[in-house]
Structure formats: C-alpha cells, structure tokens
Specification:
This protein is α+β, with helices and mostly antiparallel strands. It is built from ten helices and eleven strands.
C-alpha cells in the first residue's frame, strides 16, 4: 500500500498592490473616455469609476472657477435639492460641498501641473466604509484622472475656438463672393441636394478623369442644353475632379437635380481644407492650398452659379450648381 503523497499547498493570494489597482482603474477610465468629445461626459465617467471602485453611494465633481469658487459639473447620488444648492451657491474652495449629512465623506483634489483644477468627493449614507487601500488607490487615480479631465477641457476649448473661427470665415467668404460660396455641414448639404441623376462615377486616379468627363458630357450637358453654359459647367466640374484626384486622394462624382438647378457633386477622401486659406483661394487667381482644393478654385466660383462646400478630416465635398436654360 502506497503512502499518501503530501498535498502541495495552494499558493497564497498575491498581496494587494495599490499601484497596480490604480493603473487598472485608470485604464478603465481612459477606455470609457476614449472617443468622447464632451467634457461633461468625461467627468461623469471619471466619477462613475471612482464610486464603483469604493462601492459607495455616490459622489460629485466640482471644478475651480476663475473666481476661486467651486462649480458642480457632475454628481451621482446627491439629492436634487443638494445639487441645486451647490449650483446656486458661490462655494469657496475648502468649504463644504454637499450640504448633506453622510456617514462617510472624503474629498480628493484634481490637480494637474501642480494646479488644483477641482475636487472629487465620494460619500456613503450607510455604514459602508472603504478600505484604506481603496482610498490610496483613489488618491492615485484622481491624479491621473486630472490629466484626462484637463486634456478633455483643452480639446473642448480648442474645438469651440475652431468653430468660432469657422463661422467668421463662413460670413466673410459669403460676403466677398456675393453669396456664391456656401460652407455647409453634412446635414445641411443633404437637405440642399436634389434628386440623384444616375449612379456615381469613381475618379480614383488621373487615368479616370477621361471617364469622368465622358460621364459629365453624357449626363450633365443634356440637362443644361448645348451652349456656353454647358461648356462652363464641364470646365468647372473637370477642375474640381482634377483637384480631388491630385490633392484629395481620389473620390467620385455624382449628378443631382433640384428643380431647374443641376448639381455636380465631387467628393474626395483627403484630410480636409484649412479654412484659413480659403480667402486666398477665393480671391487670388491661381492660388493653391495643396489640400483638397488645389488650383482653380476661383475659376470654379466664376463659372458656376453657386458652390456648396463641406469639409472635415474625412474629406471634402464640392457641389457646383448651374441653372438650367429652360426654353
């Protein structure tokens, strides 16, 4: 009879590592915030992660204003009355934020580049108490989360500034072109386009330009009737196709009709247009932006009745409009 073999003892569970837990928690926050452009949504995800980590009832995030007061921007588990009071009050940094009685309450500064940007508070109305290690983890992730929050705020500020500049250029370009150049959003363009007249034709490379011009002669020129107007439309659309291939990575051309307006839509897959260069492209003959528009933009404006423009990081759409010659 064989002797019983001694059992191998099970390995002891690893000791909790606060830094590792903090990194894991921060990775979850970063993943939850990735691709989000809204600053307040980022703050909400940071707060949710903090409350979940500690298993508490709720919390809040307040940011420091230029007047050195605290402004509530995200909360969870607060009564509506408490949230309203915080929003209405001019709470100074260091004063009580929540105005409620909690069994447990803790606050952590959100500091970036040695500057306190705000305060993250967590609380429990019951007997729950986080472990000391959990508080240590939260203290570390608030330091890292402050960077996420700061980056989100900087991105939102930059986006707002770009939108302001964009609207200024929209107004200027409409004025200097007599309303012929109209910068639109994709949704606005969808509304402005008429009925599609035939399937789109790809213009991926220079060799495709001949096929694109043949498409225009067959589909567009009959709509405009023979004559100088049809020739102008062919020249302008050919210029737009050439620029789409040379400067926009190729794309396609389509024809639309809205009442007595024929629309030639040229789409490219480039990186978009620098709107700060559009005034030069509009007013200076032969000017080249080298990004989607290329040369001849002033020629297109001269030959068409109106030019609709949509451009972002995913590409550029130019729609040349020509009034039909109705007999």
């Amino acid at each position: 009879m064989k002797a019983a073999q001694p059992q191998t003892p099970k390995p002891a569970p690893p000791e909790p590592n606060a830094l590792r837990e903090a990194v894991e928690a921060f990775n979850k926050i970063s993943e939850a915030c990735s691709g989000i452009l809204g600053f307040e949504e980022v703050l909400g995800n940071v707060l949710d992660a903090a409350v979940e980590l500690l298993g508490l009832d709720g919390g809040s995030i307040c940011l420091v204003t230029p007047e050195n007061t605290l402004s509530l921007v995200a909360h969870k588990g607060l009564s509506q009355a408490a949230a309203t009071d915080i929003l209405a009050s001019q709470t100074k940094v260091g004063e009580c934020l929540c105005g409620q009685h909690f069994q447990f309450h803790a606050s952590f500064p959100l500091s970036s580049r040695s500057v306190c940007r705000g305060v993250l508070c967590v609380f429990s109305q019951g007997s729950e108490r986080p472990l000391g290690r959990q508080l240590q983890v939260l203290e570390m992730i608030t330091t890292m989360a402050a960077m996420v929050i700061e980056n989100a705020r900087l991105y939102e500020d930059k986006t707002k500034k770009e939108l302001e500049i964009r609207h200024i250029y929209i107004d200027i370009l409409a004025a200097v072109t007599g309303g012929k150049l109209v910068i639109m959003t994709p949704a606005e363009l969808d509304t402005a386009l008429g009925e599609l007249r035939g399937a789109p034709t790809a213009i991926a490379e220079l060799a495709d330009l001949g096929r694109g011009r043949a498409y225009l002669r067959e589909k567009m020129m009959p709509l405009l009737n023979p004559g100088s107007r049809a020739n102008d439309a062919l020249i302008a659309a050919s210029e737009a196709m050439t620029n789409a291939v040379k400067h926009g990575g190729g794309g396609e051309i389509s024809l639309f009709q809205r009442d007595d307006i024929v629309q030639a839509a040229i789409i490219d897959t480039g990186t978009g247009i620098d709107f700060q260069l559009l005034p030069k492209a509009t007013l200076m003959s032969g000017f080249s932006t080298k990004r989607s528009l290329g040369m001849g933009f002033d020629l297109m404006l001269e030959l068409c009745d109106r030019l609709l423009l949509v451009s972002d990081r995913e590409g550029t759409t130019i729609v040349l409009e020509f009034a039909r010659q109705v007999e």
